[in-house]
Design brief:
Strand order of the largest sheet: 4-3-2-1-5-6
Radius of gyration: 23 Å
Distance between the termini: 48 Å
Number of strands: 17
Low-confidence stretches: 1-8
Helix content: 25-40%
Structural class: alpha+beta
Shape: globular
Length: 418
Amino acid sequence: MNELDWHADRSDLHPLELQDNAPESAGIDLVAVRRYRQNRLREEMSTQGVDALIISDPVNIRYASGARNMQVFSARNTPARYLLLTQHRSVLFEFTGCEHLADGLETIDEVRPAMTASFVAAGHDIAEREQQWAREMLATITELCGLKAVIGMERMNAGTAIAFDRLGARVVDAQAPLERARAIKSDEELKCVVASLRATERGVGRLREAIRPGITENELWSVLHQSIIADNGDYCETRLLNSGPRTYPWFQETASKRLAANELVALDTDVVGCHGYYSDFSRTFHVGPDKPTETQKLLYRTAHEQVQHNLDIMRPGMSFREYSEKAWNIPERFHANRYYLSAHGCGMTGEYPYLYHHADFAVSGYDGVIEPGMVLCVESYIGDPEAGEGVKLEEQCVMREDGLEILSKFPFEEALLN
């Protein structure tokens, strides 16, 4: 077996080959991953009576085809590139000048330049551009699928959907087939999830080592970012790291605040890592140098108890409602500022399903079944209004045929548990 020298100049490799043979790809059949995902999506399209999908979310474009291009830019400029998927054809409409990026992808049959139907691209001629876009897209779909095709459409600018409607196109929302497809991972796909998790765990380890009084939250968070990019990840989707009094309530993003001695530091990774897969686990640390206070330990143990209880009750075939009924009930003292979910699906981002706390199920919950192949993140936030601090913990796992397997391996803090 040939040994690859990863320190050698790899400029001789085709761009796709360079990605597929990177260190984090070792032992993963990425062609099988791409084909599985596209087949899953086509099966869901068939099940839900959708003949063609127009996919504009860059995460979903990558899921359906493997094509990756300026992920964050594309998320902000969804009309700039999009994928048309039918049962027999996959046509990528790529950003101008980027058509070559899809070369070699077996999941794409044709690449065309995108017609960017946005005000930025078309100015005051936007209505005409949207009508032209709709006419040409409908003509292509009719050619591929016949008359009166049901078209699943993701978010673009509203004028494109209005123009479709005026042409008599049968448009439905694309979310259902996409989310249902993404919810079930193949064994090969799970290797991508694990590769992303291990890279993120290395980054969190470096972040933990960098914790010291005086460092700012922003500086500390940048340690994780550097590590993620160095390991061929994409980006951190949020900035959820905070310290001391900023750990309560949750959802305070990083700032210029400096860490003080003996504070708590809480973080949620939210990393879109290598292969585009989401690494989503949460940890809380103690700055030191003294030992944690009894209140800090109580908050940590309570959050840990919630996560462990909810991991323990999960099983394949369990309904969302049953999970909610059996899930850990948050004490009244901590209930008002609870995390908004008990658990959620995870793949290339956070995804279907959402599993709600028992107290929230009647208003927000919906039913379904926890299935083998679902990757799930079990959450806890326990914040104390009197102490003014909080603890965020979360584990990432996969449901197997015979039960739950924990995928995230980053350790909990013994000093806060005991």
